[in-house]
């Protein structure tokens, strides 16, 4: 430990800045001495906020202070973790897991907790002033250049009025951002250091949830984000007053699109590898994320008979996707295909439905008619499951819910009350615009009639719910599959002898990014309907689920496929 | 791929817009207003690459909604438009102009006038130059309103006659309105375009103050300057002016000639034919025949007694004089295939006889000449007419029978 006397006040009362330097707690003098961080034991619950006052030029003209981009993200994560806690996630997630993941990330990306954090070497750039200190301007990239760099990310449509209002911004204007390292952030070669982005905050959250094996799938998480239960859009409005955002910060912290499942998931994998994390805690059959559990959940939500669960378990067992080794995430291991638990579970259900009902737009209706006949004479016991009835009920609900969802999307409000501007010059224009917007919203809001403002739906894991108490018979959980099963050699098998493969050959993911290519017209409508149902529940594209279905089928019928590689899309089981 | 359906700001606003569109098409104004509320934040994003940006969308959509919504008032509308004016400087004058139109449609003439005057005094650097066309229109419409005031005062004066002192102020105001109107109206009609209303008003002013030369020049320009789009009304106005001032038949005919070329079915073709028929010049008479045949090619004239009367008269005259039968032959040549079914069917014969005896008389004459006494139409009508013992039909029958051989030469 450091025991020298302070040069300024002669005290021996040292603390550590997050930059890893020693500072005197009495007089706040910062030394050049750094402390090597050898191990990864972290001091729990320290926050970057506690940088010594000296390093900050406080009391700027606009009441702002210096802040680094990673501090911003830290705040975002904190808010998200709090929201998750409010949703019922265990507090460990926020206080231990997420925190530590984050610190590890900071260390690995050399933003803190290391010898020479990248941020410190950056000269403090002028904040939001148009004072053009033209020295060393050759080093500074132009505003236009930086704005165009991250355009491909698509996070923020380039605001032409801000960036290219031609004559107004000259090449020599100093790069503007509220944060100290905003411009550096956008410039960094992201290949090496896995630059932090807003979608990545969700990757962090999911990673933490996965580590704790919390009962929340990625699709649940993303849905909660869209529904507003987890801060994401406009989360910067919770930044403290003195952290001013402007210029390039907007590119970093403002989102104008909803997080995409694939993107968040892949980033999570990258992150886990980057952080050198060990094998995640095992996913066993008592975990929520285990296919047996998730299948039960989705079966309930899809209003399908509970008896189908036996079948999903059988499929899971047969293709060994219930094994902990298969399900557990091992970061960095590129040979194994990574598991998307929610997609996997619904894909299993789809395969089971195909096994039992064929779903070729003929057989399922035939079976349904049989079941209907038998139901007429069936007085005792539960009714036989009729595909036709189920279809009608589900289609009705699905259409209603889809319509609601579509309208909600059309009514989405992206802007928040905290106005944003690229530079001080633009401030008055932005505020004026905002005023007009508010006026117009009020004016037309009054003309909207007595429309209740859409209340945030209560967060729930289930979007569709069915109760057996409904007397209209719209709940199919207790229905029996007897009509479509038969006994053979002591085993219950499906009456349906056939099966059709979604694809004979899987594509190579590396080449075209997909394992299969789904086009609605190429497949039976019943199949498409089932995909549409789960696509709605998970808020992902049907092709996604289709891919997974293909993989499962190939595992299931592996032997048969090896024997006859060329023909038979339709197999006899 | 999932990226294709990425929901982002732009996409969600596109979807919002389509909901607004649907609601408007179904006249669900409340719903349209509701979705518009969510669309409005697009103003805070820049869409300069789009063909039509959100501010223009909102202006147009908002205007529609406010016009139709049951709870909206003129006051609300005005306040909305004022905001629209601040949103797009490139559109400022256009918005002002359309605002003025709205006020006029709602009978708020004074307000419209104020708006136009205000807009006229707007200056905004190079925008003023770019929006020159709109500025001219604004001045023109203001001039029109000046004309309107002028004409009100003129009417007052005419009513009261030239007695009483109080008329002096009215007269002075009238003259001042005239000056203001004249300046602006004159300017706008210089630009090639369709300015019917402005031309009429301007000519009215000129005539009142006795400046006939200027009026004639204006009308000539309007009708004959090739830079102006072909406009039948221009010729009509010129003709009416010449007629009012007792000009020669020659000039009247020349004014209508072009009208015949552009709009052979125009209602003035009757006047035209009448003048031409009476002319001493053979060419003119020939033209007259052409004109009346051409007019009757149009369905709108089928039951016009006057038109048939013109044709009948001229045809009769030619038959009797036994000169220029070839004229009829020429005109009939291109029509003999379809006029019989178009004008002279048996069904029409019955109907015409039932509804309009005079019509059937005139038509029967023409049919009898062109198609012979044995044609369906003539036979039916003359039979009916004679049965009803109407004198002229007997005469008609005799006439056609007498001249039947002519038919053979024509066909």
Which structural traits does this protein have?
heterodimer; A: 573 residues; mainly alpha; three-stranded antiparallel β-sheet; two-stranded antiparallel ribbon; globular; B: 411 residues; 23 helices; 74% helix; extended; SL1/TIF-IB_Component (chain B); TAF1A (chain B); TATA box-binding protein-associated factor RNA polymerase I subunit A (chain B); TATA box-binding protein-associated factor RNA polymerase I subunit B (chain A); nucleus (chain A)
Descriptive report:
The complex is a heterodimer of chains A (573) and B (411). With 573 residues, chain A is mainly α. Chain A is built from 21 helices and 7 strands. Among the domains of chain A are: 1-35, no CATH class; 66-112 and 195-277, no CATH class; 291-402 and 474-557, no CATH class. In chain A, the strands form 3 sheets. Chain A has a 3-stranded antiparallel beta sheet with strand order 1-2-3, with no helix packed on it. A two-stranded antiparallel ribbon of chain A has the order 4-5. A two-stranded antiparallel ribbon of chain A has the order 6-7. In chain A, a hairpin with a 4-residue loop joins strand 1 and strand 2 (21-24). In chain A, helix 11 (291-301) crosses helix 14 and helix 14 runs antiparallel to helix 19. With 411 residues, chain B is mainly alpha-helical. Among the domains of chain B are: 1-88, no CATH class; 304-410, no CATH class. The interface between A and B is large, with 43 and 45 residues.
In quaternary terms, these chains amount to heterodimer
Classify the beta-strand content of chain B into a percent band.
under 5%
Mean of the pLDDT scores of chain B? 90
Radius of gyration of chain B: 31 Å
Shape of chain A: globular
Q: Which protein chains make the most extensive interface, counting residues with beta carbons within 8 Å of the other chain's beta carbons?
A: A-B, 43 and 45 residues
Q: What class do helices, strands and sheet pairing of chain A give?
A: mainly alpha
């Amino acid at each position: 430990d450091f025991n020298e006397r302070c040069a300024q006040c002669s005290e021996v009362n040292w603390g550590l800045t997050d930059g890893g330097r020693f500072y005197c707690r009495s007089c706040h003098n910062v030394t050049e001495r750094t402390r090597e961080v050898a191990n990864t034991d972290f001091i729990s619950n320290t926050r970057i906020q506690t940088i010594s006052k000296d390093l900050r030029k406080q009391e700027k003209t606009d009441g702002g202070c210096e802040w680094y981009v990673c501090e911003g993200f830290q705040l975002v994560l904190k808010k998200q973790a709090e929201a998750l806690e409010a949703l019922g996630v265990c507090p460990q997630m926020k206080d231990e897991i997420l925190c530590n993941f984050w610190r590890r990330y900071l260390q690995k990306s050399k933003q803190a907790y290391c010898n020479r954090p990248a941020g410190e070497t950056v000269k403090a750039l002028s904040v939001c002033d148009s004072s053009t200190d033209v020295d060393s301007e050759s080093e500074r990239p132009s505003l236009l250049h930086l704005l165009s760099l991250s355009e491909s990310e698509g996070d923020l449509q380039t605001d032409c009025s801000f960036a290219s209002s031609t004559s107004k911004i000259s090449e020599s204007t100093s790069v503007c951002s509220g944060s100290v390292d905003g411009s550096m952030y956008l410039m960094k070669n992201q290949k090496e250091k896995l630059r932090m982005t807003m979608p990545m905050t969700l990757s962090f959250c999911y990673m933490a949830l996965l580590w704790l094996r919390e009962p929340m799938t990625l699709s649940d998480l993303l849905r909660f984000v869209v529904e507003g239960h987890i801060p994401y859009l406009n989360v910067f409005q919770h930044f403290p007053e003195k952290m001013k955002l402007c210029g390039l910060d907007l590119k970093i912290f403002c989102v104008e699109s909803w997080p995409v499942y694939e993107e968040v998931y892949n980033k999570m994998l990258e992150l886990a590898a980057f952080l050198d994390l060990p094998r995640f805690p095992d996913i066993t059959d008592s975990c929520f994320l285990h296919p047996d559990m998730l299948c039960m959940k989705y079966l309930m939500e899809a209003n399908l008979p509970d008896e189908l669960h036996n079948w999903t378990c059988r499929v899971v067992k047969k293709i060994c996707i219930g094994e902990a080794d298969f399900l557990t995430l091992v970061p960095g291991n590129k040979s194994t295909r990574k598991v998307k638990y929610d997609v996997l579970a619904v894909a299993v259900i789809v395969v089971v439905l195909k096994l039992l009902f064929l779903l070729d737009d003929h057989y399922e209706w035939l079976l349904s008619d049989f079941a209907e006949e038998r139901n007429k004479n069936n007085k005792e016991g539960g009714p036989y499951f009729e595909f036709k009835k189920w279809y009608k009920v589900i289609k009705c609900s699905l259409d209603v819910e889809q319509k609601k969802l579509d309208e909600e999307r059309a009514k989405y409000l992206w802007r928040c009350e905290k106005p944003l501007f690229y530079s001080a010059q633009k401030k008055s224009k932005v505020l004026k615009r905002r005023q007009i917007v508010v006026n117009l919203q009020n004016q037309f809001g009054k003309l909207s009639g007595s429309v209740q403002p859409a209340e945030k739906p209560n967060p729930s894991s289930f979007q569709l719910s069915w109760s057996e108490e409904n007397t209209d018979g719209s709940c199919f959980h207790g229905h029996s599959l007897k009509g479509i099963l038969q006994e053979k050699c002591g085993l219950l098998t499906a009456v349906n002898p056939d099966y059709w493969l979604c694809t004979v050959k899987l594509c190579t993911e590396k080449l075209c990014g997909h394992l299969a290519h789904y086009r609605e017209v190429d497949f039976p409508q019943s199949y498409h309907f089932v995909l549409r149902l789960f696509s709605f529940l998970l808020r992902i594209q049907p092709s996604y689920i289709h891919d997974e279905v293909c993989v499962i089928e190939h595992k299931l019928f592996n032997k048969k496929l090896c024997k006859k590689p060329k023909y038979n899309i339709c197999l006899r089981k | 791929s999932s990226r294709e359906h990425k929901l982002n700001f732009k996409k969600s606003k596109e979807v919002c817009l389509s909901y607004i569109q649907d609601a408007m098409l179904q006249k669900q104004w409340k719903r349209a207003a509701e979705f518009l509320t969510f669309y409005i934040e697009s103003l805070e994003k820049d869409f300069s690459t789009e063909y039509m940006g959100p501010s223009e969308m909102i202006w147009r959509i908002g205007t529609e909604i406010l016009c139709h919504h049951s709870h909206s008032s003129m006051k609300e509308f005005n306040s909305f438009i004022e905001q629209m004016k601040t949103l797009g400087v490139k559109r400022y004058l256009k918005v002002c102009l359309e605002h003025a139109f709205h006020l006029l449609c709602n009978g708020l003439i004074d307000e419209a006038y104020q708006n136009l005057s205000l807009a006229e005094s707007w200056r905004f650097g190079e925008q003023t130059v770019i929006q020159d066309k709109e500025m001219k229109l604004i001045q023109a419409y203001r001039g029109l309103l000046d004309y309107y005031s002028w004409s009100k005062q003129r009417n007052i004066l005419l009513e009261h006659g030239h007695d009483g002192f109080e008329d002096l102020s009215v007269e002075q105001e009238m003259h001042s309105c005239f000056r203001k109107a004249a300046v602006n109206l004159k300017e706008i009609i210089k630009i090639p375009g369709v300015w019917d209303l402005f031309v009429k008003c301007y000519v009215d002013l000129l005539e009142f103050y006795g400046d006939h030369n200027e009026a004639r020049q204006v009308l000539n320009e309007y009708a004959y300057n090739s830079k102006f789009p072909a406009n039948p009304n221009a010729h009509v106005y010129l003709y009416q002016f010449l007629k009012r001032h007792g000009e020669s038949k020659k000039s009247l005919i020349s004014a209508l000639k072009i009208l015949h070329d552009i709009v052979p079915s125009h209602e003035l073709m009757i006047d035209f034919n009448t003048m031409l028929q009476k002319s001493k010049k053979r060419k003119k008479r020939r033209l007259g025949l052409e004109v009346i045949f051409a007019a009757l090619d149009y369905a709108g004239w089928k039951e016009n007694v006057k038109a048939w009367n013109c044709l009948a008269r001229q045809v009769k005259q030619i038959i009797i004089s036994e000169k220029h039968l070839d004229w009829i032959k020429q005109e009939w040549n291109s029509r003999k295939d379809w006029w019989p079914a178009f004008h002279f069917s048996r069904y029409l014969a019955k109907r015409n006889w039932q509804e309009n005896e005079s019509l059937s008389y005139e038509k029967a004459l023409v049919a009898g000449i062109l198609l012979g006494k044995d044609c369906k139409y003539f036979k039916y009508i003359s039979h009916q007419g004679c049965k009803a013992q109407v004198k002229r039909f007997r005469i008609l029958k005799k006439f056609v029978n007498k001249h039947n051989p002519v038919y053979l030469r024509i066909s």
